[in-house]
Amino acid sequence: MNKDVKVIRVKNLYKKFGDFTANDNLSFEVSKGEIFGFLGANGAGKTTAIKILCGLSYPSSGEISVAGFDVYKERELLKRNIGYMSQKFSLYEDLTVYENIRFYGGIYGMTKQEIDTKTNGLLDQLDLQHSRNKRISSLPLGWKQKLAFSVAIFHNPEIVFLDEPTGGVDPVTRRQFWDLIYEASRAGITIFVTTHYMDEAEYCDRVSIMVDGRVEALDTPTKLKEQFNALDMDQVFLSLARKAKNVE
Amino acid sequence: MNRFFGFLKKEFYHIFRDKRSMLILFGMPIVQIMLFGYVINTDLKDVKMAVLDHSKDEYTAEIINKITSSGYFQLTENLQHLDQADAVFRKGEVKLILVFEPDFGKNLIKNSNGNVQILTDASDPNTANLEVNYLQGILQNYNVEINEGRPVPSSVQVKSRMYFNSNLESVFMFIPGIMATILMLVSAMMTSISIAREKELGTMEILLVSPLNPLQIILGKVTPYLALSFINALVIIGMGYFVFGVPILGSFVLLMAESILFIFLALSIGIFISTVAKSQQVAMMLSMFVLMLPTIILSGFIFPIRNMPVPLQVISHIIPPKYFIIILKNIMLKGVGFEYVWKETLVLFGMTIGFIVLSLKKFKVRLQ
Ligand SMILES: Nc1ncnc2c1ncn2[C@@H]1O[C@H](COP(=O)(O)OP(=O)(O)O)[C@@H](O)[C@H]1O
Ligand SMILES: [Mg+2]
């Protein structure tokens, strides 16, 4: 991690849907190579914020730059430098493993050669060589999720945004998933990850906890536990979540 | 460019791997044409026929005998005068009158030409057309028989005339109608479902986060359907022409150009529907009720517009397929050129622009 280089800068971010404020004055920074946990109950406003950071929707106000690019004016450049795994599963079920990789590599402008070389390494790493030409629909969920993550960082982005990547996955697979995240982080990719599994919060370098659209706490897991006098992140979260109104 | 081809490849995988899409794309047009073509033309049996024989010789007797013994036709009346024709048809029993010219036999042998006229009650034009075809077949056989071993061939010349519907309006109408329906189905419905599917599955977000811009995404989504629709248009016109003898009297190039315009219109409607619909289900329902039913019911394809209640006639004016069907009918069946269809063409063009503008607006609003 390089604390001197900030790859995400958010200052006074507001996002309103009519009268409802989904993101209420968010301000934070994320360093290069950091694993940044973005926590909050359902309906806290995590997805709303992630979509703004990815250039999928515009903020109502605020100054935001991602990978050094302004989210209002430099969307095209921004998009080339990020990866995104949405909270819905996002590979094509009717395409094979290889066809999915080839397609996503292709839309990021990678050549067939690059794609093929990298695919081999990737399939070895995931132990998926045998399923190379199988349709995604025939894979178990855990493998799909790991593959979706690998596809999201296939074009070697500076930052990857993961929106509840481990939803519905068993604990063993979640552990393996986090191994992949660590590996990507070691390779220099900044990880911005939302989750509501509190044990996963412990794996992050820093976490922010959102309640009702506001960031109520932001620090390393160790410091947060000290601050809230808690044994684990679960207790930290509970003491904050009691204040919540907009729980879905 | 490579990105675009990658995108197209993926779209074709989606289409070719989905049984429902394949069925709609390739099964539907053929089944529809067959259904309309054959069900409308049911087999003939004992059609009541009258004869007006100005010649009364052995040849006319032989021909009449051949016709009645075929089982398709039944002689019920001998007329004395052509003036009786109208009255006979009005009674409704007799569907067909066979008229032999005076001295038919003599003309046939001496001048090698005997003239027969077939008058049909064309208030049911499909059947009328079929009856004429059957009769012509029988007369054709007779020609072959009498010419055996003769140096100069004689022939029975047939002229047919349709009563009550002299320009035979709806016999071939099913081809333009099927064209409009299928192109709507493939271009509008399938595109809107395919775009809605990406939204529903969440892959649309991934595409929007990628360096592809929205225009490229939309082009990638619609291009396969443009190509497939065009192939479908060719198949439908080809089957009409080769299997059912539906003529193409006007310019083939103009016909295809108009078809492409209509495909563009349908695609833009499909895109518009997908900006409104969040799921495949909704896209399908919208396409069904907003597109397919009006296309089938109100476009004049099955029910003539002039027979509709006035409110429906008014609604039919805003239905795009109506204009396309008029254009097709004019080019294919009347053989007229662009100067007769430019107004309808302009309407289709205007509608296309309209839907594209609406879709763009919707899309902008969604990003806010
Ligand atoms: N397009 C939208 N229009 C109106 N309200 C929205 C929209 N998107 C999200 N919201 C609301 O904003 C709040 C935060 O949603 P979201 O960011 O999805 O939460 P999270 O991802 O933390 O579960 C929810 O109350 C949700 O209903
Ligand atoms: Mg969410």
TrEMBL record, chain A:
PROSITE patterns linked to this entry: ABC_TRANSPORTER_2 (PS50893)
One Pfam assignment: ABC_tran
Superkingdom classification of source: Bacteria
Record's keyword terms, sorted: ATP-binding, Nucleotide-binding
Gene3D superfamilies: P-loop containing nucleotide triphosphate hydrolases
Ranges where the ABC transporter domain occurs: 8-237
One annotated GO molecular function: ATP binding
Protein name: ABC transporter ATP-binding protein
Source species of the chain: Marinifilum caeruleilacunae
From TrEMBL, chain B:
Pfam family, one: ABC2_membrane_3
Top-level lineage group: Bacteria
Membrane topology value: Multi-pass membrane protein
Keywords annotated in UniProt: Cell membrane, Membrane, Transmembrane, Transmembrane helix, Transport
Primary localization class, coarse: membrane
InterPro entries the UniProt entry points to: ABC-2_transporter_component (IPR051449), ABC2_TM (IPR013525), ABC2_TM_bact-type (IPR047817), ABC_2_transport (IPR000412)
Subcellular location per the Swiss-Prot or TrEMBL entry: Cell membrane
Transmembrane segments: 21-40, 171-196, 225-244, 250-273, 285-305, 340-360
Domain named ABC transmembrane type-2: residues: 128-366
The family this protein is said to belong to: Belongs to the ABC-2 integral membrane protein family.
Name used for this protein in its record: Transport permease protein
Organism: Marinifilum caeruleilacunae
